[in-house]
Sequence to fold (141 residues):
Amino acid sequence: MAFTTQQGRTATSLSEINVTPLVDVMLVLLIIFMVTAPILQTGVDVQLPETRTATETNPAENVVLSISREGILYYNSDVVNLFDIAARLKKDMKSPKDPVFLRADKDITWKSIVSVIEQVRGAGFTELKLVTKPFVEPRKR
Fold:
């Protein structure tokens, strides 16, 4: 498409795409996703204890029971009553041999952990895995 200037000359229109606004929007979206991705992974704020024998696992596709610092019990990211765990596990799990992951805050009492383990075992599930984070040696100067 051509335009005529005031001097009578013919000028063509600028047909290039201005990518600066596109790059700005993409950078903002990238920052938003980088900030929200770690929050969406766990859903429950639990300070895991550190162990030297921790192994990498991905409990995201399995059932994860979490006990928060306040003693609130979560089934994946939903708050659940202790006595409802067995029914939900039987409904959601395909086999009693499938692993159930237990994440407990490092400051929670052992009594809370044992009561959850008792409910899981009472429902017939034998594969219970305790989730910890790897121990990091402090740097020596």
Observations:
- The radius of gyration is 27 Å.
- The chain has a mean pLDDT of 81.
- The helical segments are 20-42, 85-92, 110-122.
